[in-house]
Amino acid sequence: MIDLISRRRFLFAPAVALLPGPRRSFAAAHSDSGVSHSFLAFGAHTYILSEDGKTVWESPENTRDGWLLPNGHLLLVVTRSRGQHGGRVIEVTRSGETVFRYDGTQDEVNTAQPLPDGRILVTEAGTRPRILELDRKGEIQFELNLDCQTENSHSQSRMTRKLANGNYLVPLMGEREVREYTPTGKVVWRASTPHWPFTAIRTAKGTSLVTGTQANQVFEFDSAGKILWQVSNDDFADNPMAGVCGAQRLANGNTVFTSYQAGAEGTKLTEVTPEKKVVWTYRDGRKQGIHHFQILTTNGEKERGTPLR
Q: Which of 134, 211, 133 is nearest to 166 (CA)?
């Protein structure tokens, strides 16, 4: 079930070997405000794009979530496949060496989060939907079973995050609800969404930013579960929201969201201000969508603090 691999070659070669010769890029970022970003994208195409539109790292793995770690390694949630039914979580170096691996034991692994104490938070979907905290040997140090439907494991939890207060913020798709659980499983906060909630972020202000996939909306809730702010296609001229999955609240207060179902001609990433002004967009001409992402830099400056995503 658990396999710790030390300094073993991963399943792919370094990015420079994957694409020999000049690199062709379909990336097309746009900003009337002079904004540029580098970012890490997760999905059928997993890659890091520089601010000038160059792919500087990539993996052939289909991924669902992940992080660029402070040491430069990548933590990736690999989507289940025929040969790896439950999915897996891996940490790899830029050169492709796997230094951590956890193989899922149920239907899906949907979340990974590096924790300050060195543990890794993981969620599993299946007959026993649960949150796990793993040590660096891949051994379970904490487990919390989630009280949600089990008829459809793919509609269980999504981008679960451990909060600074020790609780867990969990989007439950089948219940169309986001819940905050204590480590003992008590629900201390909840908010309902009109469709499947996907990403849930506790902001520095104590509000909760939530994406609603098929509702094509992003909501911000207060401590009572009331909507303080939201965006939808009604706020834009070109209907950029199509299957809103991942999101990130930037240090400057802006919000970036992904439209997973945008298709080859659509806008994959959109950044909006609190006033709902679009300041940056990204398209790439690919049929596959961006499932989630991590904004790394803005105009050459590293994103400040722990990414809120």
A: 133
**Which of these, 47, 40, 42, lies nearest to 12 by C-alpha position?**
47
Which residues, 6+ apart, have CB-to-CB distance to 204 below 8 Å? 308
The DSSP bridge partners found for residue 142 are: 133
Angle 253-216-305 from CA coordinates, rounded to 5°: 25
User: For residues 169 and 208, what is the distance between their CA atoms, to the nearest angstrom?
Assistant: 9
CB 198, CB 178: distance < 8 Å: no
What is residue 159's three-state secondary structure? strand
Which pLDDT tens digit goes with each residue over 194-240?
Answer: 999 999 999 999 999 999 999 999 999 999 999 999 999 999 989 99
Q: How far apart are CA 134 and CA 140, in angstroms?
A: 5
Distances 144 to 147, 151, 160, 186, 217 between C-alpha atoms, Å: 10, 19, 12, 10, 29
Measured between alpha carbons, how far is 224 from 43 in angstroms, rounded to an integer? 33
List the strands of the sheet with 217-221, edge to edge: 197-202, 208-212, 217-221, 227-232
| pLDDT higher than 70, residue 6 | no
Structural domains of the chain, ranges and CATH numbers in brackets: 8-15+28-302 (2.130.10.10)
Q: What is the rounded CA–CA span in Å between residue 127 and residue 160?
A: 18
pTM of the model: 0.90
State the average pLDDT over residues 265-278.
96
Q: From the CB of residue 16, how many other CB atoms can be counted at a distance below 10 Å?
A: 11
Q: Is the dihedral of CA 173, 48, 66, 279 positive or negative?
A: negative
